[in-house]
TetR/AcrR family transcriptional regulator
Amino acid sequence: MPKKIDHEERKEKILQTALKVFAREGYRDSNLSLIATECGVSRPTIYQYFKDKEEIYYYAVKLVTGRMFNKYVAYVWSTDQDLVSRITTICLDIMQEANEHEGELTSLVDVMLQMKKEGRDFNEIILRRTAKLTILFKRLLRMGVKTGDIVDCDVNKVADHLLMLLESSCFQVAFLDTFDMQLSKQLISTYLDFYRA
């Protein structure tokens, strides 16, 4: 009897292997044959899931951001923390996740930089994938202003500032050996405390 294949599990294994290969070899020098060999599958098997390495990249961004967003939505509506603390917890967790997955993050950012040099820009996909997080921040900020937990503020600007601070931290995790995680976490906490009523 043939072995039953879990296609989602296999797709994720290909993704994880690809990210390791990208990190080690660089995106430009990586290819599907190398990924297939390291994954223990044939190249045609890779093509059943991804048409090229760019599609693997898109899938990685989609998978990571989707999982994180689902995690934060579940957390936000299941806790009785005040709204500033909820936003702070999400931001600090994103930074912690970035730090714990530094190699994969470096690889993803490296891919973006290499593709930008080739005239392709991944900005749109990143904006699309972070839009839900920005909307969540705005919703929590509006709720906080309405309940009096958060001072009256320009919700759109505050949400944009948070996203910029998070992007900056992730970039620094990926590329700067001198990055101080505690200092960055303190910066975000202090920034958000400023809006606490």
